[in-house]
Amino acid sequence: MAFFSVRLVSRQPHDTPADQWQAIVADQLRAVRAHYDQGKIRAIYREAGTGVLAIYDATDARELDTLLAQLPMWRFFQEVEVRALWDMVPALPGA
Which of 9, 14, 38, 94 gets the highest tally of CB atoms within 10 A of its CB? Predict the structure, then answer.
């Protein structure tokens, strides 16, 4: 098990009609909900005006890559930032 901070920023392409874009967004929200229900997303936050920050729980970077590549909006992400995280609590004095 490994935790990853994942920041995703997407933009609607100019040549994609609004109704088609909303269908893609709806598919994305369902996929994200499935990741959450499966325990793959531990927390998710909307960054006002920019994107989404999610804390993923994946076996390793390969699994995380697979999870992200399966998202319906994958091809529309303009920015993807991934950082490996580790739990510091066990290293704190008295823990």
Answer: 9
